[in-house]
Design brief:
This protein is α+β, with helices and mostly antiparallel strands. The protein folds into two domains: about 160 residues, FAD/NAD(P)-binding domain (3-Layer(bba) Sandwich), CATH 3.50.50.60; about 200 residues, 2-Layer Sandwich (D-Amino Acid Oxidase, Chain A, domain 2). It is built from seven helices and 20 strands. Helix 1 packs parallel to helix 4, helix 1 crosses helix 7 and helix 2 crosses helix 7. The protein starts with 11 loop residues before the first strand and ends in a 16-residue tail after the last helix.
């Protein structure tokens, strides 16, 4: 759409959203659903390989060991996933359950139990023998969360975008923002294809945030490797046969996680998906696609051989995504006070944000429309870094 109206005056949007990926697509949807004139600007296509959503599947869970304050947001997010599934008439959430394997005193097991007690989340203690597809040390606990599973990120983003457009949102792809500035009449956005004016400007640019918005805290972008492996005998490793899983070891940073082998009806590679959740290689250019995966691939093969030994799996495909870390690895969702209330940011999701997409979209729309939100995001504000 041209930035000028029929009368030569610049059209003014209620909100412009920079970055129409995970959080941006849901924000466009929420704004448009509430009757706002919204423009979403995405430098790539809708879903792509240069952001944080690539790779077919993302875990969703409620017993949040990272911090129990996330749980109310998660409970709302579950409702939001149901809403967009109904709107799009497609399944996005697959309730496989998640099995957590780790020594009982590990911070992850203790965090899961604490979060579940505080918020009434159902967990069961299981014997690792329940799933003979895994090779779990006898001293590990196995905690199973039945109301959890995985989401399909690329399909979800496309569903949010389509729904936003049905409500009247304009979505521009392959358009790169080069500058923005506040004016007496709002916020002006300059791209390689036009100039646009809005009352509010929302940044949901993921790994590219620091290149287009100055924040009072640094964001660190890392490359994360995702791997798919073919079991020698695929029987028993498919969807409905094993849960999603997490494995943590004492003295080892982060955790390993994986998914059942998905059938051909899903987008993306076949086979068992496995990844290592920890800060990966730091990236100076988020668009860079050249990397040496040798060490990481050997590590993931070691994990498969040690913990999923019956699969006798061979890694055959690799993909990468980006994590954008805040200094404390908690999200940043706030108005940028140096710009009054006109500029809003959601960033620093630190590798655990996708499951929150619907509620973050709601919160950002609230901030743009009302200047505040009823959803409990206070602990995610920029004030914590001052």
């Amino acid at each position: 759409m041209d930035s000028l109206s029929y009368f030569g005056a610049m059209k003014k949007w209620d909100a412009i959203v920079i970055g129409v990926g995970s959080m941006g697509s849901a924000t466009c949807y929420q704004l448009a659903k509430q009757g706002m004139r919204v423009l979403g600007i995405e430098q790539y296509d809708i879903t792509h390989e240069w952001g944080s959503h690539a790779g077919q599947s993302r875990l969703i869970r409620k017993a949040y060991f990272e911090h129990p304050d996330y749980v109310p947001l998660l409970q709302r997010a579950y409702d939001g996933w149901k809403e967009i599934e109904q709107k799009a008439q497609i399944q996005l959430y697959w309730p496989t359950g998640i099995a957590y394997f780790a020594p009982e005193q590990h911070s992850i097991i203790q965090g899961i139990r604490s979060s579940a007690r505080q918020h009434g989340i159902r967990l069961t203690d299981e014997s690792p023998d329940k799933w003979p597809q895994f090779s779990i040390p006898r001293h590990f606990s196995c905690v199973f969360e039945p109301e959890s599973g995985f989401l399909t990120p690329e399909i979800a983003i496309r569903s949010f975008v389509q729904a936003a457009q049905e409500y009247g949102a304009d979505i521009h792809t392959h358009e790169r923002m080069s500058a923005w500035q506040e004016t007496t009449n709002g916020v002006e956005v300059i791209t390689d294809k036009g100039i646009y004016l809005a009352e509010k400007l929302i940044f949901t640019a993921g790994a590219y945030t620091s290149y287009i918005l100055e924040l009072p805290v640094p964001l660190r972008v890392t490359r994360q490797l995702l791997a798919w492996a073919h079991p020698q005998d695929p029987a028993g490793f498919g969807l409905g046969e094993i849960p999603c899983w997490m494995i943590a070891e004492e003295g080892i940073e982060g955790l390993y996680y994986g998914f059942p082998a998905l059938p051909a009806s899903f987008d993306g590679p076949r086979g068992l998906k496995i990844a290592y959740h920890r800060p990966g290689e730091r990236m100076t250019n988020p668009a860079d696609t050249v990397f040496d995966s040798t060490d990481e691939q050997l590590l993931l093969k070691h994990v498969l051989d040690r913990y999923v030994a019956p699969a006798r799996a061979t890694i055959y495909e690799l993909k990468q995504c980006r994590y954008t870390y805040s200094p404390d690895e908690h999200f940043i969702v706030d108005q940028v006070q140096t710009h009054g209330n006109r500029v809003i940011v959601a960033a620093g999701f630190s590798g655990h944000g996708f499951k929150f997409v619907p509620v973050i979209g709601e919160a950002l729309a609230d901030l743009a429309i009302h200047g505040s939100t009823l959803w409990p995001i206070g602990f995610l504000g920029l004030h914590r870094f001052r």
